[in-house]
Amino acid sequence: MGGVGAALYCGTGCFHRRESLCGKIYSKELQFDGLLGGMSKETTIEELEEASKYVINCSYEEGTQWGKQMGLVYGCPVEDIVTGLTIQCRGWKSVYYNPNKRASFLGIAPNTLEVALVQHKRWCEGMFQIFISKYCPFTYGYQKIKLAAQMGYCCYLLWAHISILILYYVIVPPLCLLHNISLFPKVTNFWFVPFAYVYVVRNGYGLVEALSSGDTLKSWWNLQRMWLIRRNTSYFVAFIDTISRQLGFSETTFTLTAKVTDDDTQRRYEEEIMDFGGSSSSSIMFTITSTLALLNLISFVSGVVTRLAFVPQFIPQVTLSGVIVMVNLPVYEALFLRKDNGSLPSSVLIMSLFSLFVLCLLPIF
Q1: CA angle 69, 74, 79 (to 5 degrees)
Q2: Measured distance CA(89)–CA(82) in Å, rounded
Q3: Where are the transmembrane segments (predicted)?
Q4: Would you say the pTM of this structure is higher than 0.85?
């Protein structure tokens, strides 16, 4: 997107021209004294106190263009993305700049899975809201930004929809394997080549890109783990919540990301132990993760025990379940082996087993 002048404005570490954010629209009552500088008249302490109360109340923005044509755009959980889009639609160009790979801006990232999932849920909701609002890049950006930029924005704004496709691949193939139903061509069949090509090229390209950027094989594998978990949980819940809001069943809320951690959480983070930090606010997402992990574990074990793993038409499904099992190894540890505060609570295990039982009873075809 940087190549077409549409680099995303997201998070921190962004520089803006004042004119790009605020424009050149001034109040008629505003008078500048550029030669003398300072204020046009002396102001008393009492007047400053009254003005500060007015500013704190935030009512000074009512009836103005703030939040619409000036400053950040209001009404969206990801105000940075939609603000960047509106700025680019006014004709401004944005670029990515990384001066000598220096850490110019440092922030605090989530160090527990719970906080990370909640954060991505908020981002996903906000970007989905942009896509179905008047700020959709294909309509709002028509003839204002390039088609490549419009499509590039959709790679982010359609995160929520990806969850449906990913859920299909982690639910339907293992269920069909349990019922001895083959979904993919035999590995000896020519039509198996496109499936294998897409899988190998996609992951191979991602691995090469990660290694060339200075990451390790372990960090790339952890990224794949988070990629799968987020799409099965945060993105799916965000999709459902956004649809319910569009139907009028709920209102938009802004969920803060917790940045304060205790000593135990910090210790697990430094020891590279996945901290689930389970609580009632994210029990639904943890239940989804655990249920899918258990489903693929049972499917994989069943395929190996019944020797379906050696039947050509079932090898792709057994392999897929095996990869998902490897990705979810920390989930199994948190469910059955770990007893620390960063593990998954027993309530999640009970709900996951119940959900798994219901899934296994579903008729397939």
Answers
A1: 100
A2: 11
A3: 153-171, 183-201, 284-308, 314-332, 344-364
A4: no
Instruction: Confirm if 247 and 313 have CB atoms less than 8 A apart.
Output: no
CB 58 within 8 A of CB 126: no
- Residues in CB range of 186: below 8 A, 6 or more apart: 192, 312, 313, 315
Confidence of residue 253 (pLDDT cuts 50, 70, 90): low
Distance CA 311, CA 306 (A): 10
Q: Select from 287, 307, 296 the least CA-distant residue to 351.
A: 287
Structure tokens at 351: 């709900």
335 vs 294: CA distance, rounded Å: 10
- Tell me: the pLDDT tens digits for 158-177? 999 889 999 999 999 999 99
User: Closest Cα to residue 298, out of 355, 342, 225, 340?
Assistant: 355
Amino acid at position 325, single letter: V
